[in-house]
Amino acid sequence: MSDHPTEDSYGNKAKSFIHHRHALPSLAKEPRYLIIPAMLRSLKVSAAIAVFACPLGAEDIVDFNRDIRPILSDKCFQCHGPDEEALKADLRLDQRESAIHVTAIVPGKAGESALIDRISSNDPDERMPPPKIKKPITPAEAALLEKWIAQGAEYDDHWAFKPLEVDSANTKKNSVDHFIIATLEQKGLKLSPEADPSTLVRRLFLDLTGLLPPPNRVDSFLRAHEESPDGAVAALVDELLDSPHYGERWGRHWLDQARYADSNGYTIDGERVMWPYRDWVIRAVNDDMPFDQFTIEQIAGDLLPDPDKAQLVATGFHRNTLINQEGGTDDEQFRNEEVVDRVNTTGAVWLGLTLGCAQCHTHKFDPISHREYFEMFAFFNQGTDVNNTGATIEVGEGEMFLKNPDPKKVAAIETAKNALKKTTAEKSERQAAWEKAMLGPAIEHGTADWTRVVPTKFNAEGGVPLELLDDHSILAGPGAPNETYHVQLTPSTEPVAALRLQLLTHESLPANGPGLAGNGNIVLTRVEFLRDGKAITVKLAEHDHAQPGFSGAYTIDDDPETGWAINVGKGTAAGVKMNARHEVRYTFVEPLPPGAVVEIVMRHEKNGNYNIGRFAWETSPTPPPSVAAETLLTKLKLPKEKRSDADKKYLASEFAKVDAGQREAQQQVDAARKELGIGKPVSTMVMRDLLEQRETFIHERGDFLRHDEETGPLYPGVPAVLPAMTGDSKNRNRLDLAQWLVRPDHPLTPRVTVNRVWMRYFGHGLVKTENDFGTQGSFPTHPELLDWLAHTFVEQGWSMKELHRLITNSETYRQSSQASPEAEKVDPLNHLLARQNRIRFEAEIIRDTALSASGLLHPEIGGPGVMPPQPGGVYAFTQRKVNWVDATGPDRYRRALYTKFYRSAPYPLLTTFDSPDFQSVCTGRIRSNTPLQSLTLANDTAMFELAKGLGARTMSEVEGSDTDRIRHAFSLCYSRPPSEKELGAVAAFQKKQAASFAADKAAADSVAPAEYPDSFTLAEAASWSAVARALLNTDEFITRE
Amino acid sequence: MINPLQQQTRRHFFEKCGVGLGSIALTDLLAKESGGNQMAMGRSHHPAKAKNVIFMFMAGGPSQLELFESKPRLNEFHGQLPPESLVEGKRFAFLGEDAKILGSERKFTSYGESQMELSELLPHHRKIVDEVCWLRGMKTDVFNHGPAKLFMNTGFQVPGRPSMGSWVTYGIGSESSDLPGFVVLQSGPRGPRAGNALWSAGFLPSSYQGVPFRGSGDAILNLNNPEGITPESQRDFVDLVGTLNNERLGVTGDPEISTRIAAAEMAYRMQSSAPELMDLAGESQATLDLYGATPGGNSYANNCLLARRLVERGVRFIQLYHTDWDHHGGPGQTLGKDLEKLTKQIDQASAALVIDLKQRGLLDDTIVVWGGEFGRTPMGETRDNKVGGRDHHIDAFTMWVAGGGFRPGATYGKTDDFGYEVVDEAVHVHDLHATLLHQLGFDHERLTHRFQGRDFRLTDVHGRVVNEVLT
Question: Which residues does chain A have within 8 Å of residue B237's beta carbon, measured at their own beta carbons?
Fold first, then answer.
């Protein structure tokens, strides 16, 4: 175990870096970029090079940030630090003046410094830190403190909070290489040679678009590279940056930070519509929207003067927070959670700081106070959304991608929408007119005048007792199953146009009836009407209500297997109950003359005891209106004030069926949308602030219920350690914050942003702790390069594409990823970049590359989320079952960033390959390597389908030999030819597979692609699927070399 | 067969690991890769007492004062400020300075020969009081969930270091060639905070990372070959992929490829071993009843039974996470019905695992650990204007350990009258790590890995083997 004196609270990575940076306190506040004197510059360069830890030699200069701050922070600040409440003896060791003032420190004179005296005292009452704190200063630490005081006790600001430092004398065209090479040379290393051009073209395609290069583009690149390597790379980079897939690739990185998902989170996890925001991101990235504008529109687009629709959709960034839809939740509690998340996400994404630590108490390591946290909180505390959908905006499919929309067409939509609005506004007038007309005499509805008929004879074949009640209805008792009732009616003095059977409830029946089944249900299978023994023909049998699949019409179809039943089920109108009065009305083809004797047979031929319990027959001399018409009339006749909400809804929907004016107005809008090129509109969530500000208080210990009233309401503000925000604090809003985040002299935003871009290209950032630029984070491996890149990024108008060009054209980026033994010895983790790193792609890109290799990719950009096939067993035993219907059309083959993401049940391939769950911000993903990943690649149905696609391509795109086919498959997957050994192994495998499939037709059927050229046998076709499957399963396939 | 290039890379890789363990792990790995299935125990620093660990991680921080520690003084001082000597200079995640002592409403009774006091909430634990070594003086360094869980798992509060399970499998290798050496099982309403980082291999080769089974739905998806792919065809497929990967390894020298080759082989073997492992139907009704497990479900009880089955199959390190024990007193977080719900979920199965392992003679070489990332404060916490919970407490909490040479029925650790501080027999997280490694045959100061020019270890520069709790 090495006994490095600074091993304590620093991260292991930070610990290793020795950097001798001179404090420049007097300059630190003033200019935008520090211009470093030449003498210091050389010192800095040589110092920054000693990257790996070696024991501190006697001649070394003690560095405050590296050596001293951790000791003071860990052992002393608790009582002598920023927390005023805990301050003892009025001594602050985090402030040099304070420490000198009370002679705790006498610069240059360790012997006279009380600090040294107290830490080495043997008197337990004198000794610091007090023994009961149990954090003794070790002798090594004491020695460091002594040496530091002897050397002048210089304090230094934390590097990341200081302004960017850029060496103005450096005029090298591409300084990425300048800084990397300089550092390597100090360690006796050099850059690796440029990667093989076929590796390079694949690398560039994957890094910039996340898709594989088509073989012909590989070929043309190789030819161009022979002519001019630099020119070929530059041209390809330009081409790929212009590809719409660039926005998908880099937009996806951004969506991680935006914690974008298609569901609300928590246990209910209902679906939400946020894809217009996703589309906005893709569009903005493709357009190379300057990062400052990109920031402002997302944080505060709604507060810009006269914001356009896209600027409102952009604010969806902070509407990606979770919403808890569980019953009984305190909305205010979850509103606070959302605000907290917005603060923490803003801190992580732009500032690279763990602001969340200051939610409950003053940050223990970084100079961010509890109060400052809630001053940041105040910016986000004004939203109108309260754990709910809140403000929304209507966006059409494709609308975020419109390029230079024709103003006339845009205006046409507006005109049509205004017309629609007007039509809608006049709807009640039109409906009133319609209602009046419907009730008027001009419309023939049919009328009925039902009279209950007294049965003259009645009996049951099976012998159950039938009893005639006072109201002329018949009550049946329990007894024989599948009874048949016979009823003869008193002849009418009027014609009989229709008869209706009424089912009635009765307290003697199970569940009050009207049936005799346990739940009161019936199944009436056949009703026959006879006159003088001859059947009367029924024109229409219409029920008021029927159980799904058990229509009243089934009673006259002469089929004993079908019948009328009355349970409620899916599709039953609200409010309808089974245990209530129901009816079927039978209209005869020819009305019967007065005096006709009618006999009725009622058969129950299914479900043993489903006989009717109580019923009556009624007669009408005229044909009755339809049930629907009658319902409508009944509701129309209700005075307006007596109509229930359900009645109003019913009438509105009936009117909508005939309201041509409304329909036409809507069609006009749809047509105008189509004309402009946008589809169906959806409502997506956006940020909006309250008109009247919410007061913000410090939440004591982070508890939203415990407002610190003593401190009083806070105004929005930013941590004092960062550049000051101008303007009246009372009137600040998110727009001020957004503009502050991207002010050109911001020490954090440009550094944090370029560092993350760097991380994507090399596997790790120049600052390894890309999510912590605070004092606990690691020191940059190449501080000058970081600042130069950040500076250049801002100088180039915050252009991401320029930053990409800068990095991808560099020799550093273009070098080979093959390890060399010498470099491995010096720099095993390749922090100095003597070679490129091999990087396994993100989960989404694994699917995307398989899609592009298979040729099945449907390259459409944007729109609603899609549902590609997912394995069975995802929802086994779970409570939350997503209605996941595997897409069958082109949506089955869309890029993975369009796969619907349910936070509680994510698409398994994504999580298996380390996609985050998007509950909160993710600034950098981890990369694991597990057997579960192997199982997914090998056996997942979606992956297998793509293997078949690649197999089909291998057959259809090559006319030559099997060897040519293998070469082609390699070129599709790896952009390179196979080695002889690889070729041999694959060829042998293919032959063996073909032979075994020839012997197993069923297996071959399952494995062969759906379509393949006639020249192949089924077994051969299956064998090429098998080959393709193997090629999609290698490490190389999912790795960017 | 191991490819010579791969072997060379491996050797090259292990050369960088320094002396000591590197060579141990290398020999084991190479033995395994060349088809052997030998145990690495003989190559430890000293003879091992145990070879497996089952760590039942109660994520969120269970309250020792409602479960294991009877403190009458709490009830006596209920509603009063704690003595200043206790809280001076202390900080808490949520508590303010005005936090008052909270009495415990739970009844405690002594059980067994050891006369261990247990709360009414753990009736099944009564059966194992004499099998278990109770650590009442646990201490940790950090009081927020994510960092504290990382600390308990990796000895460090920031992600990036290898977890205990990774160190153990790195040290002693896996006895199973069909299943990963380090398996993570999950139950409860959500995954543990800090997620993957808790079972990460850190800077150790990624093949030592924990393999998480899914907490809902099928534990492992995609175990079946696609339709039409016969077992023989699958074998050929795995071989071809292996050949192609080895070719690439030869070209690039990237050890990640070795991991992927091993992972693919493991995946292939899991296709037959995992369904058999996961199928609890073959367990006797008596065993199922002992745990309260139900074949075909997802539960903590099922995971406990699975843990035993994993141990039987040679898996070295099994970690069970059960969420969420964070009883601050807010809605769903009370020490009343919410705590009861959790203890009902874990009490029976935790005890059953100890009993079952013992019955089968597996307890001697299996260490069973039970505990969370920290305990809870003697002071009550006010949430929603009600005092119904306790805050995170790092200065004294209880864990228990059974089997693997830990003294059965022993109680180690004494806390003050309020359960606030350990007054004697403290066991820091680093000490627990050192002791666990000791029982597994390793000197925690010598189980190291060189990274960025420094030798790292699970216990950093700390840790003491607590011999007092060992037989």
Answer: 938, 989, 1026, 1029-1030, 1033
